Amino acid sequence: MKILMIDVGGTNVKLMATGRRAVVKVPSGRKMTAARMIKEVLKATEDWDFQAITIGYPGVVRNGQPASEPPNVGGGWLRIDFKKAFGKPVRFINDAGLQALAAHRTGRMLYLGFGTSTGATLIVDDVIVPLEVGSLCLPDGKRFGKHLSDKAFQKRGQKRWKRTALAGIELLREVFKPDHIMLGGGNSDAIRPLPPDCSQQDNRAAFRGAVRLWPGADMLAEPYGASWRITRRKTKKSPK
């Protein structure tokens, strides 16, 4: 299937589609309501060819639909019929879950996204569980959401922010015991050298996750309450 990805962020809405290498960014922010997002996306993609839409949503998603208004953009997300508005099938996934799904191979993986806010998702045994880590406290008592946001990065400077990020990574490593940690988001570039068993993923890789919400991909993630369950496409065995 030809897929359009709409990754809704606090700074930009990022658009990618099958057959298009470039990322198109539409400025977002607190004034980006759901209705305005739809209008801007339709305008930006009016000559694009796609059959279905994946939306990376910066908030809680349950049973494949937004369950709460997002904190860093405008409102109205719970009242709109997105399938009707776009005229295409639409599937939602938490934005950190989208990035995690894109990075997942096997085993127990923790994804941490350092952008406008801090996003996190754990994948265990092919079950995707988005985590709300913003209210967690670091060892020095500082909260993730306040001291690892982009606002904190700009205010405190890269060096101090990096120390806090490294402390946060190690705290979550101790809690969740992942085999691997994937870092993403624009501010993850500041975390160099990377901690042990960590790697970094460019935000553009999210498109692989967008494809994996639709049949025909190597993995198919389907909503199950507040999580997603992955099934893998079976490969045909060659005859002996």
TrEMBL record:
Please give the Pfam families that the UniProt record associates with this protein.
ROK
> What Gene3D superfamilies does this protein's entry cite?
3.30.420.40
UniProt-recorded Gene Ontology molecular function terms: kinase activity
Q: Which keywords describe this protein according to UniProt?
A: Kinase, Transferase
- SUPFAM superfamilies reported for this sequence: Actin-like ATPase domain
Q: What is this protein called?
A: Polyphosphate glucokinase
Query: Upper taxonomic classification of the species?
Result: Bacteria, Pseudomonadati, Verrucomicrobiota, Verrucomicrobiia, Verrucomicrobiales
